[in-house]
Every structure is written in structure tokens, then in C-alpha cells.
Specification:
Layout lengths: L5 H27 L12 E4 L7 E8 L5 E6 L4 H7 L12 E9 L2 E9 L19 E4 L6 H27 L2
Helix pairs in contact: 1-3
């Protein structure tokens, strides 16, 4: 039988716990995440999509799309076309709650309007609902909860429990 010193066992236990903590942190960042992962979304940028001499408007597109950023697009561009220019939504994008913020100037008053569209059933929307105006900001957030999130949490908990059990087993067998 091989004898392992108490110090060596403690070192292995610490390594196991650090490995488990690193795995948990990695799962939370990639799977659960606070925003789109770097691998799935390019850094926000400016996109100019127009023919020479065409009248354009600036639109901001944020959130769970392939290419978020500021878009200079033809004045006739609607929301679906803009999302197509952006490469479409990415995994876990909440297309049932797309938020549009619009600034309207009337006389001397400036008003900010916000409304939400459900793009999961495009056939139910009036074409006017998809019309964009200069300066609009579109935000596509993440689906609040997915089964993948639950699986990620369960995996992280299983890793931590395994690491703790291993440490306890090693320390109890050391005596």
C-alpha cells in the first residue's frame, strides 16, 4: 500500500476544489451568461448598408443578434430586414419580447416611446408595426430561463459535490 502524506492529500484536495470552482465559473459564463458570448457575437460596430445616393437612417440594434451595432440602412428598411442584415437572432434570443425605443420630436417637446413586439408570429403583425424610424433602438434580450440553464446549474452542483466528497473520502482514509 502506498502511503500519502497529509500535506499531499491536502494539496490534492485543494486542486480538486480549485478545478471544480473553475468549471463552475466556466459553465456560468458560457451557458447561463449575463449576455451573448464572445464566440457567438461580434463586437458591436457600425454597419453601412445602402446603395450610393439612397436616403438612409441610423438604427441601433443591441442584444442577442449575431452582429449588434449601429446600422445605417435605407429608409425603407423594416425590422425583419434589419435583423437579417444583423445575421439574425442567436440562440436563446427572446423573439417574443423585442423592445423598440423611439424618440419623437413634436413642436418643442421630445417624447420617448417604448413598445414591445412579438416576432414569433410575424403573420399576426400589421406591416406598420415592423416599420422603423430614424434613431430607433431595438433591444433583443435573452430568454429568461431555458432547460439548458437548469442543466448547467445541476452540472456545476454535481462537480462541487463530487469534489467535496472526494476531499472528505481522502481525509477520512488518511487516518
Amino acid at each position: 500500500m502506498i502511503r500519502i502524506s497529509q500535506r499531499a492529500r491536502l494539496g490534492v484536495a485543494v486542486l480538486l476544489l480549485l478545478a471544480a470552482a473553475g468549471t463552475v465559473r466556466g459553465v456560468a459564463q458560457v451557458e447561463g451568461g449575463l449576455g451573448p458570448s464572445a464566440s457567438s457575437v461580434a463586437q458591436a460596430a457600425f454597419y453601412y448598408i445602402s446603395k450610393p445616393g439612397e436616403i438612409t437612417m441610423s438604427i441601433n440594434l443591441w442584444g442577442y443578434v449575431r452582429h449588434a451595432g449601429r446600422y445605417e440602412v435605407p429608409i425603407s428598411t423594416d425590422l425583419v430586414q434589419l435583423l437579417s442584415y444583423a445575421g439574425g437572432p442567436i440562440e436563446n434570443a427572446n423573439m417574443s419580447s423585442v423592445q423598440i425605443t423611439r424618440t419623437e420630436r413634436r413642436d418643442d417637446a421630445i417624447r420617448r416611446l417604448s413598445f414591445t413586439l412579438d416576432l414569433t408570429n410575424l403573420h399576426k403583425l400589421e406591416p406598420q408595426a415592423l416599420t422603423l424610424r430614424p434613431g430607433d433602438t431595438i433591444m433583443i434580450e435573452r430568454i429568461p430561463f431555458t432547460w439548458g440553464d437548469l442543466l448547467s446549474v445541476m452540472t456545476a452542483v454535481a462537480i462541487v459535490v463530487t469534489a467535496v466528497t472526494s476531499v472528505l473520502w481522502w481525509t477520512s482514509n488518511a487516518q
